[in-house]
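Lay summary. Proteins are chains of building blocks that fold into shapes, and those shapes determine what they do. In this project we predict the shape from the chain. Here is one chain we studied, written as its sequence of building blocks.
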Amino acid sequence: MAQENYAFILLCDEKWWNRLCEQNRKSQNQTKSFVRRNLRGPIKTEKLLFYVKSPVKQIRGTADFVERVAGNSKILWNQYGKETCLKNFREYRSFLHGCEKATFIRFKNFKELENPVPVEVMKKVLGILKIPRGGKYINRETADELRV
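And here is the predicted shape, written in a compact code that computers can read:
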């Protein structure tokens, strides 16, 4: 594993973040999946950092990356849908906005951070004003600077 790809910052809406936390409280220590539209997300990394977008603007959690599975949205739902925070297939299809391809980012050991990392610290450490919509790889040293 290249040190440059030690962690991957995932963007998450507050609604899905809250659902993910609720799901984790009910079923800790189980593999979970984060759904993305189309084919995007990390391919190889060790850690996932969950950045909750506006209005929160903080890294609120971490997890250990298991794998990225991408392809036909219906097949993926049938295999991994129970791992998501989506309530049912109908909600999943609505979330995808008609996309036929999806990505499931599978992870374990999900944790909410006691001290979330605010966007001001992220900007300073990462040297960027905005996290790209597709996410961002960071190296181990940068993750350590973020204290996650």
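What the prediction tells us: DSSP finds five helices and six strands in the chain.
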